[in-house]
Write a structure and sequence with these properties.
Shape: elongated
Strand content: 15-25%
InterPro entries: CASC1_C, IC97/Casc1_N, IC97/Dnai7-like
Oligomer: single chain
Family: Belongs to the DNAI7 family.
Structural class: alpha+beta
Organism: Neovison vison
Number of helices: 15
Radius of gyration: 32 Å
Pfam family, one: Casc1_C
Distance between the termini: 32 Å
Protein name: Dynein axonemal intermediate chain 7
Length: about 650
Amino acid sequence: MDLERRNEELEELCLLEGCFPEAEKLKRDTRLLSQWKHYIQCDGSPDPSISPEINTFISLWKEETNETLEEVIAKSKLVLKLIEKLKLILLETPPYDLEDKNIKQYQGSILELQELLHLKFNIATEILLRQASTLADLDSGNMEKVIQDENVTLYVWANLKKNPRYKSVRFSETQIGFEIPRILATSDIALRLLHTHYDHVTPLRPVPTSLREYTATVNHLVKDEVKYEETAVDKELQEEGKQQENESNSVHEEETKFEEQSGSEVQTSFVREESEATKCELEMKLLSETVLSAQFLLIKNANEKPYIFEDNEVDLCQFTTLGGVYHLDILELPPQCKPTKGWMIVEILKEGLQKYIYPPETTEDVETESAFPPIEVTLEVQENVILFEDPMVARWDAEGKHWQTDGISNVSYKPEDKLVTFSLETLGPVTLIQDAHINMPFQSWELTPLDVDQVLLTVTTVFTTIQIQIKENLCLLASITLSNKKHFSILEGKWMTPISFICALKEAGLNIFPSEHSHFYVVINYKDPLIEMKAYRQLALLSSAFAFGWSKWNIVCSSNKVIVKLKEHLSEKPIQKPNWTLLMFSGDRAQRLKINENSETFSEALKEETEFHSTLYHMVKDFASQKAMEKVRSSSCQLIDSVCYMLLSTRVLSYS
């Protein structure tokens, strides 16, 4: 392969990959447009990214008092939307477009909204419990309240009768509830199970700063280059101005002078336009560099774990929380309302809702295990969560600010009823955890073109097959297959941006997205990150007209090479017996292999009558139809960018 042809191929690839900074520009425009849309909506809701607006909203809500649980749950819908919007801003805005003060502001607003929402639930629970005696059940004599909502499920039980034989608390004729010891059955207490389908307990993840530092350096260099160009242009204009002045000293030749001035103005305009074009070109160069760096960070493996985890502490790099948080509380029953001459008199405690300490801090030589046994709890797993194995239960350690697995025993799971039962020494927030890498490594993958500007990514794991449809800047869960049976998910049919889509799949237990620490927990087929990234970018460029898939030879070849199978795919119908071609790529050289998927031994031998190329694009161009290449060149930059992002997020070349 001669040097001249290599340079030509790389130049053409560079032009084609201009779609990535172009797509990033469109994303920026979309983010600005969303702010403008919110402004012109005038629906009364604050823009959470604007500090005065969100602070005013929080202050006004703090002033609202005596809200019932129903009112708090209704208001929580807006609050959760605001929190979700801020989280998405932090996730979707590239690190190089985020300033430290903005990150601090957004995270501060998220924490303040989360804390205020939980406080409102506590105040509303206290208001409900003050009226417990008036809401008592006629049969049991105790009060029970159940509220179910799309984001929250609340169970409250007040022990008014204090019957020592009433130890089994079950809500609304379900199996959800508690088995309490005698000491609690005879105490002035209330039990609350607040299941938030979201997780506001786990600390927020830090925003990566390495890319911002890199971009600041590149930005500085490019700005210097722009400044240098502008200075050069100004100097050129000044010199031309002096030259024009010297040449037009003859005052009596008015017509000649006028023509020279006109020519000077045209030339000045041309030079300024050229300067603007150069500036624009340099800005696109900066954007291209920063996008490339952001893509590289998506697949870069961390050198070490973030920190050492203590005994019984849940490693959130290895495990993930599922189904939200279950806030389990034993509460002291507040003074009850008393009717007097048509009035309701109630004593309001200054300290508000108080937790009942169980077991007590001082037991005075009483055998704790027999007098204060663990409390048995039965919970229901959230409907849209998929569990691939029996879940583990973790409790929140408020002091250490992490999830722990100690103090929990006798865990059992009924998959047919989606019920988890366990014993807990002390009640508090609990959550279900599952191995974040249970679906890794993948068994196979395939990327197939569909309609115009639509692509289907299929990932097959030990437990499931997930199909993801991609169009423009959106993704959709097309189907999930569990144990060879199609499984319905509430996510199916919902178009989302790639980042929102990935978050939704993770929350549902369908994590096929490795993190920078995943290689510590999964046996992977390590590939050089730079070569892997280049491969994903070029596969995305070709994805509108060619199908790609997993090859068994990708495991055999070295870490500085990747192998994929390819076929031209222009029809919407699947090809019955596809004739796959094997391609090998090393970052700067691509070739067709002589072997096929069914060959007995691996060989890097070049296929007859083919030659080496610098890129996958030019390799494919050698044998592809003209129609296929036209379709590739006319692909939407947003589709190419989204396909590339999903490939970078799943890392199918390393994790299959």
